[in-house]
Write a sequence for this structure.
């Protein structure tokens, strides 16, 4: 087992992602592809055929890469798969392609693994760390601490707003109208307020880390990156003023204008305004001066657990959660 490589495929609501590490945890492959599996799921209650086929195309490619590395593979599904009534059928197709039965993560397991992945490569911190994970169909706020060399999750809240579902529900114009933007922000702000009322510790974190595609993209636009540079993005301090500035820029442009911003990939341009709305709402309501960007995420938590033999306890392989 000392030469075993470990691979994880995360089937998210907006992107389908691959990470392969060697036996020592060294990164061999990291790949992200936007597949928008969650397109229409909030309205229809099912994963749509076109979204399934887009996702399967990427998974077929990933399966070949995993085979080349002879890696042990885990596959997980998150919010869109929790919402859909045909997830079991979709998972059967994924298993036929990969030979591995996907696991459906509960919202709490998704939050825990994302928190663990996000903080593992950041400096230890003598205080409570919150991880903000903005996905395609949900957003998780998770708190824990890394004191005394450990990494312990204390609590998490999953909010039913993500960049795909929020775009479909709230942002209908190109560019979005002012009232659409205000609505998109206020809905999330109210959800954050309610979460803090129920879980006061969410408002008391002394370090906040942001993960996943929207936050990393907002950071890349702020830096004006013409090519993805994990070295500049990982650990970056993204101020609230900078996030608000990126929001104002992207929200007032048409899609055709928006795609020319350095740092914004074409496949994210259609949903990034919703990502800005969600992040701005969180930072405003929690009075955050800044967040720390992490390019490590759920996948890193999964492969770390695989190496330790503890990743997917408490998850299910079929059905909806």
């Amino acid at each position: 087992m000392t030469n075993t490589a470990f691979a994880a495929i995360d089937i998210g609501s907006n992107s389908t992602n691959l990470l392969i590490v060697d036996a020592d945890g060294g990164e061999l492959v990291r790949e992200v592809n936007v597949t928008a599996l969650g397109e229409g799921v909030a309205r229809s209650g099912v994963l749509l055929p076109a979204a399934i086929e887009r996702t399967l195309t990427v998974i077929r490619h990933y399966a070949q890469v995993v085979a080349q590395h002879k890696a042990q593979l885990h596959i997980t599904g998150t919010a869109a798969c929790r919402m859909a009534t045909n997830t079991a059928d979709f998972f059967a197709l994924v298993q036929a392609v990969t030979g591995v039965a996907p696991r459906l993560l509960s919202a709490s397991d998704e939050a825990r693994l994302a928190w663990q992945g996000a903080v593992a490569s950041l400096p230890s911190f003598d205080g409570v760390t919150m991880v903000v994970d903005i996905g395609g169909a949900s957003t998780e706020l998770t708190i824990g601490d890394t004191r005394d060399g450990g990494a312990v999750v204390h609590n998490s809240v999953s909010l039913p707003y993500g960049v795909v579902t929020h775009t479909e529900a709230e942002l209908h114009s190109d560019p979005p109208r002012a009232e659409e933007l205000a609505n998109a922000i206020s809905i999330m702000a109210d959800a954050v307020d309610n979460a803090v009322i129920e879980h006061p510790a969410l408002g008391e974190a002394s370090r906040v880390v942001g993960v996943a595609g929207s936050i990393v993209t907002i950071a890349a636009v702020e830096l004006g990156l013409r090519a993805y540079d994990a070295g500049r993005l990982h650990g970056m301090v993204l101020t609230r003023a900078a996030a608000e500035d990126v929001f104002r820029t992207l929200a007032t442009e048409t899609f055709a204008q928006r795609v020319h911003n350095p740092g914004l990939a074409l496949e994210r341009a259609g949903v990034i305004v919703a990502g800005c709305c969600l992040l701005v709402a969180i930072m405003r309501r929690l009075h955050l001066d800044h967040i720390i960007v992490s390019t490590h995420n759920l996948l890193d938590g999964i492969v770390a657990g695989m190496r330790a033999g503890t990743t997917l306890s408490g998850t299910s392989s079929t059905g909806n959660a």
Confidence is low (pLDDT under 50) at residues 313-321. The longest helix spans residues 178-198.
